[in-house]
Design a protein that fits this description.
Layout: H1 17-50, H2 60-116, H3 121-182, H4 188-194
Helix pairs in contact: 2-3
Length: about 200
């Protein structure tokens, strides 16, 4: 009894068995991905529709209160940011001067060490003292660079926080605009309370 099939074993719709499994798996993954995409799209539209925190004219008082609190937080963050930016110039000059001092002190220490090779104990002690001072200056320079890096990181963090708070203010502005567009008549007292910025 010989082999009846001369070609590959044919499976689903004329494809060889290896390709049948690949096509079936591709089809299942495509269906799964499409289903998940539809679910997330529905959730996105639901979130956008219900995302507005303040919806009615009576909510404007709470909206204004939150707006004022966020504005106050932004002004405090701006004050901190200004302080950190002022420190940047100090750290930069400290880094430059510390590095220059370290180089000068190291050179003086090297010169003193050259003199100390003559065997005089006074010169040797002076060389050791100069070497310690050079090491201290080098550490000061390293600390100044570290302080400057920390300061730059703090500035980036404060800037990100301010941007986030300003985004919240823009969101509150859009909610206020939506409330006002749905309101046919605004009494004079509410008009003043809404535009507090």
């Amino acid at each position: 009894m010989g082999n009846r099939h001369s070609g590959p074993i044919v499976g689903f719709k004329g494809y060889p068995n290896g390709q049948t499994n690949f096509i079936y798996m591709y089809y299942k993954n495509f269906k799964r991905t499409l289903s998940i995409a539809f679910i997330f799209t529905g959730l996105l539209f639901t979130t956008i529709a219900n995302g507005q925190k303040y919806k009615t004219l009576s909510d404007t008082t709470r909206l204004n209160k939150e707006y004022g609190e966020i504005s106050l937080e932004i002004s405090k963050l701006n004050t901190k940011l200004l302080e950190e930016k002022n420190k940047t110039a100090d750290y930069h000059s400290k880094t430059s001067s510390s590095a220059g001092d370290a180089v000068a002190t190291a050179q003086a220490s090297k010169d003193q060490a050259d003199v100390a090779t003559s065997g005089n104990t006074t010169d040797t002690k002076k060389a050791v003292t100069d070497a310690k001072e050079a090491d201290k200056k080098a550490n000061d320079a390293k600390n100044a660079v570290s302080d400057e890096k920390k300061n730059n990181k703090k500035i980036k963090e404060l800037t990100a926080q301010i941007d986030q708070k300003q985004k919240l203010l823009r969101d509150l502005d859009s909610q206020r605009a939506a409330i006002m567009s749905n309101s046919p008549y605004l009494p004079p007292a509410l008009v003043d309370s809404v535009h507090t910025n």
